[in-house]
Design a protein that fits this description.
With 384 residues, the chain is an alpha/beta fold. It is built from 15 helices and 17 strands. It folds into two domains: 265 residues, Alpha-Beta Horseshoe (pyruvate-formate lyase- activating enzyme); 71 residues, Arc Repressor Mutant, subunit A (Orthogonal Bundle). The radius of gyration is 21 Å and the shape is globular. The structure holds iron/sulfur cluster.
Length: 384
């Protein structure tokens, strides 16, 4: 059976203060050892799975667009040895200030790149400042031009809504500027500021948790109220529908044929292997994950295939992922996978919301209404 592969490249030029991904400084002395360990993990995971064909590959981070062509070449060799590499979609997450023709060409030639996901975040200088990003609007425009000039690549732009000081007018202007750039796909995520340190804080000596926590408290105090953010979300639905984008997942819009096949595997709760720092996998109903601390990750995989932290997946989690999609959840599929009692439990919990206008039922298929998309957490907490 073909599977999907996620490859985590944790390196970033700087740490964005709102970010909770597993990251590490691009200049870390452990960079080479990380990449060697990653190749080792790829070899061991591929062998363990019987060298399956890869259906989709996603290079995420961190900032995978920071990799040098020689590092991309080493990755290609590791992937070729471990897997049957004939994917239908290969995505590269890129930061606007790091993308150049040389790196883009290396990913294209060596790894069969088909899609670039550009972390624009905002097309307004105020927005990029409020998010403490290190790129400017000109970097975004230059990167979009670069991807377009390469030809034949599908382009996603990531935008963040609800940054400190953002007005609804500013958000609408951001969206309209983004649409004018003509991306094939847009992801619009509200700024969420977690107030607990994640494992990978230790990878950034000198930019420790106390200063990040202070930044987050200040930023949270300046964020728009929840009802303004809800209006911003409705603005996105209206403006992007008007521009021909289908709203296929709570935070994702695409032109026909440009939906992210890789991310659809996550939302449909399919099988994928995640390799690298803090990467998660879902295989045969079990979820497992790597450690998010750079030195620990290297140490564990250097000694052979470690016992990964893991837990069984469950019906509620599968239901929540499916409800994120416009196509929604078919409850009978839960029964086939987890048994009738688990499916009945999910159905009963969702039926408990009848009358709230959050869900639409068509036989055994259920999906979020527009109100449900706005208040999705109210639906999801019912299932947990
Ligand atoms: S560039 Fe992306 S992954 Fe890196 S710190 Fe910033 S938000 Fe996080």
């Amino acid at each position: 059976m073909p599977i999907s592969l996620y490859v985590h490249i944790p390196f970033c030029a700087a740490r964005c203060p709102y970010c909770d991904f597993a990251t590490a400084p691009a200049s870390t002395p452990l960079r080479d050892r990380y990449l060697q360990t990653l190749a080792r993990e790829i070899a061991l995971r591929g062998a363990d799975l019987g060298r399956p064909r890869l259906e989709t590959v996603y290079f995420g981070g961190g900032t995978p667009s920071l990799l040098q062509p020689s590092e991309v070449e080493a990755l290609r060799r590791a992937l070729d040895d471990a897997f049957d590499v004939r994917p239908t979609e290969v995505t590269l997450e890129a930061n606007p200030e790091t993308l150049d023709a040389k790196r883009l060409g290396a990913f294209r030639t060596l790894l069969g790149l088909t899609r670039v996901s550009l972390g624009a975040q905002s097309l307004e200088a105020n927005g990029l400042r409020a998010l403490a990003r290190t790129h400017d609007v000109a970097d975004v425009l230059r990167s979009v031009e670069l991807v377009r000039a390469a030809g034949g690549l599908s382009l996603n732009l990531d935008l963040i809504l609800g940054w400190p000081g953002q007005s609804r007018d500013a958000w609408r202007a951001d969206l309209e500027r983004a649409v004018r750039l003509g991306p094939d796909h847009l992801s619009c995520y509200p700024l969420t500021l977690l107030h607990e340190p994640e494992q990978s804080v230790v990878n950034w000596p000198g930019s420790g948790w106390p200063s990040l926590a202070r930044w987050r408290s200040r930023a949270a105090a300046g964020q728009p109220e929840d009802d303004v953010v809800a209006d911003m979300y409705l603005d996105a639905e209206r403006i992007l529908a008007g521009a021909g984008y289908a709203h296929y997942e709570i935070a994702n819009w695409a032109r026909p044929g440009h939906e992210s096949r890789h991310n659809l595997v996550y939302w449909r709760d399919g099988d994928w292997v995640g390799v690298g720092l803090g990467a998660h996998s879902h295989l045969g109903g079990t979820r497992s994950w790597n450690d998010g601390r750079l030195a620990t990750y290297i140490e564990r995989w250097s000694a052979g295939a470690p016992e990964l932290d893991s837990r069984p997946g469950d019906a509620a989690e599968t239901a929540i992922l499916a409800l994120r999609l416009r196509e929604g959840l078919r409850v009978t599929e839960l029964a086939a996978r987890y048994g009738a009692p688990a499916a009945d439990d999910v159905r009963d919990r969702l039926r408990g919301l009848d009358g709230a206008g959050l869900l639409r039922w068509r036989g055994e298929r259920v999906s979020l209404t527009r109100r449900g998309r706005l208040l999705s957490n109210e639906v999801f907490v019912r299932l947990v």
